[in-house]
Design a protein that fits this description.
single chain, 289 residues, alpha+beta, N-terminal domain of MutM-like DNA repair proteins, Helicase, Ruva Protein, domain 3, four-stranded antiparallel sheet, 7 helices, 10 strands, DNA-binding
Length: 289
DNA sequence: CTTGTGCCCTGACCGC
DNA sequence: TGCGGTCAGGGCACAA
């Protein structure tokens, strides 16, 4: 469930609590998720930088290695006092040079990733061919150029991390709703003003969620132990059968738009291609300020 | 190229 | 109270 805003929330906490510290000793590393060679490469290294691109975190060490962290669905990473209770599914405990502090990685579902690799290996795996520009900093022009190249529907395209990095199922629905675009519209059919609305909605929704510390639906907890607040501002996700807050049409839910993934949208505000949009409403994009 | 399916995995939830 | 079934979904492999 962590998407860009949740990962950014975690990254900001790690910049405060982990950057500049050295991993002195790994107390425990579960072979279920963490390779021995990753542990070997990490021990003795200082974490210098926490980068984030989309849902991926890249922690650079002084030895020019990269600790790749993905939270998957249920991942949690953070720095805690070593006495802190060890919760189930804690896959890594590492002692830091800061007295009594421990770096921990927890992931019940094990959809996450925790790998230490060399810089060249990192470049091979996360080059521009494999991971698109971060959704927060992708320009409207770049977004349009990327959407133009494919006949796929806009929702799966937006969720394709090679196209733009950071948007998952929940935010895709919120973004398309605010942009008044039907999720099944072919990506290459979007006109300039469609893309401009899409870009504004994408940046607006993601930034608003970051300000709220992310969305906590089932499980997301920040590195500082706090839940997010954006779940209270979701306008379509999870609202199937309820009235649209703008036009009062019933919110639809279908798993058919993206294979196996639930998709929520408003048939009134997000008409399929061919139907004209209704009278534009100045306040359609709900302000999160 | 596209779409669909299934897998990984656990916990929350629902109906009986 | 308990038990089995279903669902959730990020990323990926694979088939059509």
């Amino acid at each position: 469930m962590p998407e860009l805003p949740e990962v950014e929330t975690v990254a900001r906490t790690l910049r405060r609590t982990l950057v500049g510290r050295r991993v002195e000793k790994v107390v425990r590393a579960s072979p279920l998720m963490i390779e021995r060679r990753s542990v070997r490469r990490l021990v003795g290294q200082r974490i210098d930088v926490v980068d984030r691109q989309g849902k991926w975190m890249f922690l650079r060490t002084e030895g020019n290695d990269v600790l790749v962290v993905h939270l998957g669905m249920t991942g949690w990473v953070g720095v805690v006092p070593k006495e802190t209770e060890v919760v189930p599914h804690t896959h890594l405990r590492a002692r830091l040079d800061e007295e009594g502090q421990e770096l921990r990685f927890v992931d019940p579902r094990r959809f996450g990733e925790w790998t230490v690799m060399s810089q060249p290996a990192w470049e091979g795996r996360f080059g521009p061919k494999n991971l698109g520009p971060d959704a927060l900093t992708c320009s409207p022009d770049e977004l349009q150029a990327r959407l133009k190249k494919t006949t796929r529907r806009i929702k799966p395209t937006l969720m394709d991390q090679r196209v733009v990095a950071g948007v998952g199922n929940i935010y895709a629905d919120e973004i398309l709703y605010q942009a008044r675009l039907a999720p099944m519209r072919p990506a290459h059919s979007l006109k300039r003003d469609d893309v401009e609305r899409l870009h504004a909605a994408m940046v607006g929704v993601l930034a608003a969620s970051i300000r709220d510390g992310g969305t906590t639906i089932q499980s997301f907890i920040g590195s500082d132990g706090r839940e997010g607040g954006f779940q209270e501002r979701l306008l379509v996700y999870g609202r199937a059968g309820r009235a649209c807050l703008v036009c009062e049409s019933l919110i639809q839910c279908s798993p058919a738009v993206v294979a196996g993934r639930s998709t929520y949208w408003c048939p009134g505000c997000q008409p399929a291609k061919g139907r004209r949009l209704g009278r534009p409403k100045a306040r359609h994009v709900v302000s999160h300020d």
